Fold this protein.
Amino acid sequence: MEGLSERQYAARVGLSRGAIQKAKAAGRLVLHADGSIDADASDARRAETTDPSKTRKPPQPKRKPVPEAAVSAVGDTLKEQGLAAPATGGGTTFLQAKTANEVLKAQERRIRLQKLKGELIDRARALALVFRLARQERDVWVNWPARVAALMAADLGVEPAAMQKALEKHVRSQLDDLAEIQPDLR
């Protein structure tokens, strides 16, 4: 056998055996004397005689565009780890994205482990605790002038009511200043 069989040629060109048989019957294939198919000559003849509008195009791989936010996140993750980040506008390679993904997985595992060990606390809980502590401290300061005004007035020889008013005024002023401070728990 000089050339290829129908099955071999079908496998080579990516068509069914039935399609090869139809092309053979229509004279669109070049055959050797023994009936086998001359592959190179048949490819050329099929290319000449086949209507391009009726050919199947191989399916293109479906590629989704990668959002710019994802590319910049990969770059940020790589930079945090001291690795080379993708050039601006140059996109990111699969290897860079995979490296960033592995880095993020490792960071996530480390955070989970720290949480299990009790080294991390919940942000909402921490804010609630800070708020409660600040409220308790404020209440102590608000009640302080009433407790100490009489003792301070006796030590200084002034009227207790005037002393309490002066202390309350200064404590309120100080608490107003403290109220402007916002905790930043990042």
Q: What stands out?
A: DSSP finds seven helices and no strands in the chain.
